[in-house]
Amino acid sequence: MIKEGQRTPTKQRHLASSVHRPLNSNLPATDADSQKMETHHRISRKQSILLFGILCILLPATLFLQTDLTNLRAEIVSDYGDVAVKSSTANAAGADEYVHDTNVNTTHTIKEESCFEARTNTIPTHLHGKLPTPYINLGFAKMGSSSIHAFFGCAGYRSTHYRCLPGSSCAKCIRQSVEDGLPPLQHCGSADVFAQIDDGSKGHYPQVEYIDELATGHPNATFLLPFRSMEKWYKSMKGWHQMNIKLRRANITGLPIGTGKNVDEFSTWWCWHVKRVRDIVARNPSHALVEINLEDPSTRERMGEMFGVDESCWGKANANSKIHPELNGTADSVEKKGWRLNGS
User: Fold this and answer.
1) Residue 285: which domain range?
2) Would you say residue 150 lies in a domain?
3) Burial of residue 43 (number of CB atoms within 10 Å: 0-12, 13-18, 19+)
4) Is 55 a member of any domain?
């Protein structure tokens, strides 16, 4: 027991202090308490400085990312005419895997490496006359397919157009080949040229639905992609058994049912197709891509040079006389060259 006036031992003084001083006491703090508070304030200051530094880094990065995304979207709009491409595995049913913003008049808004103009520099000079077969047209009907067929037939190639086998369309044999797990042209005979591979009457478009299979199944194929005015193409389709309506109802990839009611909507879809073809060839450099401007007078000379063929073989075949009266008799002049249009 401690007598009055006797000092309390140190250990007991500390214990008494910790027990009897209230948490919010106004009594003077000990040295240890002061050190703790100073340490706490130092940590708080460091945390504040660190947080401020992080914000200084993140804020500019966020603004930069937002600007970059805006620029990226602008590039996509420029490249695809505001066609939003979803990740997909295209199938023969032509599911709606690509969404079109058809409010954009792509005929007038796309100004970069245009999807409406044929490039003339895709085939280097040293490959002229040496492009490997098969030659596969990835364009569509009323877009020079008969002219392509006539050109190669005139040059002595085994060319098919629409029908690859007697009584059987190219689209049908291609589809059967793919379903059997074979290269797309496996069941389609031994032609050198496939000038038209779709069957619009059945809504089958292998150049869209099986374009990846064509690229991988025939790694040395030369692809052909004809170009013409969208306005003239649309007019030709309307004047040819209402092909524009059949195409609109086919529900092929990139062109959902009901889309394609006017030239602008068809232009949007065509632009997407052109970009897709160019991208696939760029990713598969074993392929050559010949882009053909059907309305350029110099195309006759270019086709002759690239394929080592007499340029007189190039012309316009199967033209609608109501739309192109100046071309009446073209088909007869083609037949007089002494060869037959296989598959016509």
Assistant:
1) 86-335
2) yes
3) exposed
4) no
Q: Tell me which residue has tokens 């990713």.
A: 283
Domain membership flag for residue 158: yes
Please, are residues 170 and 228 in contact by the beta-carbon 8 Å criterion? no
pLDDT in tens, 102-124: 333 333 333 457 999 999 999 99
Q: What is the CA radius of gyration of the chain?
A: 36
As given in the structure block, the two tokens for residue 106 are 């792509």
- 265-307 confidence digits (pLDDT tens): 989 999 999 999 999 999 999 999 999 999 999 999 999 999 9
Phi/psi at 214 (nearest 5 deg)?
-65, -40
Judged by phi (left if over 0) then psi (alpha if -120 to 50, else beta), residue 226 lies in beta
**Residue 62: inside a domain, yes or no?**
no
Asked if 138 and 222 count as a contact pair (C-beta separation under 8 A), the reply is no
Question: In the chain, at which residue ranges do the beta strands (DSSP E only) sit?
Answer: 83-85, 98-100, 135-137, 159-160, 163-165, 168-169, 193-194, 222-227, 288-293
- Amino acid identity of residue 179, one-letter, is E
Prediction pTM value: 0.64
* Per-position DSSP letters for 151-171, written without gaps between them: HHHHTT--EEBSEEETTEEHH
CATH number assigned to the domain comprising residue 136: 3.40.50
* 83-85 vs 168-169, strand pairing mode: unpaired
**Comparing C-alpha atoms, which of 247, 61, 215, 274 is closest to residue 142?**
247
Domain count for the chain: 1
Buried b (16+ CB within 10 A) or exposed e, 273-299: bbbbbbebbeeeeebbbbbbbbeeeeb
In whole angstroms, give the CA distance from residue 29 to residue 9.
Answer: 20
For residue 216, give the H/E element and its range: helix 211-217
